[in-house]
Amino acid sequence: MRSEHFNYMIEIDRLHSISAASRTLYIGQTTLSAIVKNVEKTVGFEIFSRTSNGVVTTEKGKEAIRLMKEIDEKFESLYKLRDKHMAINKTLNIYTSPSIGCAMAVPFMKSYLGKNKDATVDFKVISGEQVAPSMIQSAGNIGVTYFNTKEIERYKTAALRYQIDMEILGRDCIYVLVSKDHPLALRDSVEMDELREHHLVLLSHFSAPESSILGAGKGSRPASYTIYPTVSLVKDAVLSSNAATCLSGYSIFYDGRDDLDRFKVLKISSLRKGTPNEMMICLLRRQDSSLKPHEKEAIVFIKEFFAGHPLPELD
């Protein structure tokens, strides 16, 4: 059980609804339901009783929620102590998705640490869909991740409540990446439906039910796929097993590797029906009053990176 799970349980208790809590916490309802089941399994009893109108906190659950509130308050005090330490030591935490982290981390570190030699930078690379919830749960002051248009509108509502500002830094899309020996390498574009005929290697997000690219509908998943935790391992698998993958433009062109000539990048001509192949790169940040000077400086460096690294146009 993770510390943020206490807050999730408290929010469900407050709203008497898992679906309503998933919206305020910016977590997929399926994911939140699974967390509840895991927490209940851990404590050994049912915290919430499911009804047709939502959930009702059980008697044992009420006692558990009371204890969780006490623990959550202690964690809040611990976070404040951490923030004081970070202010003194210029520790910088940046939460980002694997796709963005692999592209931004090295050039950012060179630029930022070149001017802040006494600083410590920690890129917290987590699943892209968890960056926004981590920001909401006070895990950090800066995050960079992808959103589609619908997700942006949904997150803005939650962001205002938690005093988080959002800024679009650029646009990206999903490409198919294969080795030069792959059968698809003779093509310049491919439809997503065609990928079901090939083995895929994927980051975890693209196989999740909430994924806006592969989806979870009937027949929407590939015939076979393997999950890898990092972009670099995905690319290694593309070369070693002659598989195909779906990656963002930044993770393909700006990941710091020097072997792009061994791959073929394909445009995707057709996604799942009604899903545009466009993602916004979004900077999530606490409002200025909550940011330390070195965090404000880091935000400038992040903006400069994306402004200075446009995606190439494919023929």
Task: Tell me what the structure shows.
44% of the residues lie in helices and 23% in strands. The chain is α/β, with parallel strands linked by helices and 315 residues long. It has 3 domains: 3-82, Winged helix-like DNA-binding domain superfamily/Winged helix DNA-binding domain (Arc Repressor Mutant, subunit A); 90-171 and 279-308, Periplasmic binding protein-like II (D-Maltodextrin-Binding Protein, domain 2); 174-270, D-Maltodextrin-Binding Protein, domain 2. The strands form 4 sheets. It has a 5-stranded mixed sheet, with helices on both faces. A 4-stranded mixed sheet has the order 8-12-7-11. The chain has a two-stranded antiparallel ribbon with strand order 1-2. β3, α5 (98-115) and β4 (120-125) form a beta-alpha-beta unit. α1 crosses α2, α1 (3-15) packs across α4 and α5 (98-115) packs across α10 (293-308).
Distance between the termini: 49 Å
Q: What gyration radius follows from the Cα positions, in whole Å? A: 21 Å
Number of strands: 13
- Give unreliable regions as ranges: 215-219
